[in-house]
Amino acid sequence: MEKHRESKRVLLGRRIRAIRNANGWTQEELGAKSDVSYKYIGEVERGQQNPSLDTLIKIADALEIELSDLFCFEQQISNRKDVEAMLAKIIKGISDDDLRQLFFVLKGLYPQK
Fold it and tell me: Alpha carbon of 21 to those of 30, 63, 74, 89, 96: distances in Å?
């Protein structure tokens, strides 16, 4: 369970970093805009800190996004192995009929040559 929490902290940190970078801001700039130490911002981005709700609200407000947007981790899937693992979890949880339908959809989108 501890590893699961740690991985969520890492995902949260990556999400904050991605949004900060998309704005073209340094950690110092985000820190100043959110009234949070830039060193702490760096620790959050590396998944080393577990920020409070108040801190997350400050960061979201500074980034001019909704608080819930910080937790949109699906966009953080960065490599094929992660995608395959998530697909495997989905496939294990669906019925045989749904699996067949998924197969035909994928086969239509990506016909074998």
Answer: 10, 10, 18, 31, 42
Beta strands in 30-69 (DSSP E): none
User: Assign residue 51 a region: left if phi > 0, alpha if psi is -120 to 50, beta otherwise?
Assistant: beta
CA distance 73 to 68: 10
Give every CB contact of residue 97 below 8 A, 6+ residues apart in sequence.
Answer: none
pTM, whole model, 2 decimals?
0.64
Over residues 62-76, the pLDDT tens digits come to 999 999 989 987 655
For residue 18, which of 87, 58, 74 has the smallest C-alpha distance?
74
